[in-house]
Design brief:
Length: 257
């Protein structure tokens, strides 16, 4: 029970890595606020957690709406008075290439960077209270594309690389507040969102490209969401009590080259 009696919040928590982390946090004793834009999937995730004895609450929020994020933070403060774990997981592949529209640029920035930055700020007082109550942890989902770059998705690399710098800066800002700030940098992960990275609609061609890409990974496979969630749990828990300001690749060896 690494997170017994702790309050945790997970964005994009209704599927993939977010759902896996929310489920794992709950199994380890946390009350988990599951945040997602998908109403049905959010409620399904919470119901699944509660069905096995866990504690969770569903919050349907469009993270592009800063007023909604502020209302979410205020609700956490009012209901709990503190927050011990903030997992800023939300993100999208976004448009590929360099020939983006202004709308595509704005959407990538708003979801991959702005949302997590502002939500962390809105939750500062709750996180400080969590820091005084045994310690708090902010975790971001970056990407290997934020560490080594991607010729296909410069926008994605730009936003995910920015998270690496943000983590370092926030870690220094919060170092004396009992709040640690770190990130995970997954490579390919078998989630419902993975096909979107290929930006095509043909299922057979998507599968062919997936397998071809997986063959370039030193471990010759994609990660499962639970493998990312286990590292997130490590960063959320007292096991990583002296780790802050780092980004941990969880990539099957991609960044070891």
């Amino acid at each position: 029970m690494l997170l017994e009696s702790k309050i945790a919040l997970v964005t994009a928590g209704a599927s993939g890595m977010g759902r896996a982390a929310a489920q794992l946090f709950a199994r380890e004793g946390a009350h988990v606020v599951v945040v997602d834009v998908n109403d049905a999937a959010t409620k399904e995730t919470v119901a699944g957690i509660e069905a096995v004895g866990g504690s969770a609450a569903a919050e349907v929020v469009d993270v592009r709406d800063l007023a909604s994020l502020k209302a979410l933070a205020d609700k956490v403060q009012i209901q709990h008075g503190k927050l011990h774990v903030l997992y800023n997981n939300v993100g999208i592949p976004g448009a590929g290439g360099l020939d983006l529209t202004a709308e595509e640029w704005d959407t990538g920035i708003e979801i991959n960077a702005r949302a997590s930055f502002f939500l962390s700020g809105y939750l500062t007082e709750a996180l400080k209270a969590g820091g005084r109550d045994g310690g708090a942890s902010i975790i971001f989902t970056s990407s290997t594309s934020g560490l080594i770059g991607s010729p296909y998705s410069p926008m994605y690399s730009f936003t995910k690389g920015g998270i690496v710098a943000l983590v370092r800066s926030m870690a220094l800002a919060f170092a004396t507040e009992g709040i640690r700030v770190n990130a995970v940098a997954p490579g390919s992960v078998e989630t419902p969102g993975l096909p979107a990275f290929f930006r095509i609609d043909d299922p057979e061609e998507i599968e062919r490209r997936k397998q071809a890409f997986f063959a370039t990974i030193p471990m010759s496979r994609a990660a499962q969401p639970e493998e990312i969630a286990s590292v997130v749990l490590f960063l959320a828990s007292p096991m990583s009590s002296y780790i802050t300001g780092v980004t941990i690749p969880v990539d099957g060896g991609v960044t070891a080259r």
